[in-house]
Amino acid sequence: MKGFRFGSTQGAFYILPGQDGWEATYGNETLGEFNSPQQAADDLARGVTCPHLSEGDDTSMLEIPEKLADWEIVHV
């Protein structure tokens, strides 16, 4: 099974298979569940609240790519 990883200046974000679809995570925090990995990447790029970021709490400030092709593939 594969997932996706993006290493930002604040740390790694993951989009991984979840219980009923896909989960976006940062550290040990789940940022949401999504129907597809593309939907997760879109939402992270546009801005998801993440209180554990050291600068602000919005992922849109981290230049997270919307295209999954720009994410690293990880095997889980």
TrEMBL record:
Domain of life where this protein originates: Bacteria
Full protein name: DUF2188 domain-containing protein
Organism: Paraburkholderia metrosideri
Lineage: Bacteria, Pseudomonadati, Pseudomonadota, Betaproteobacteria, Burkholderiales
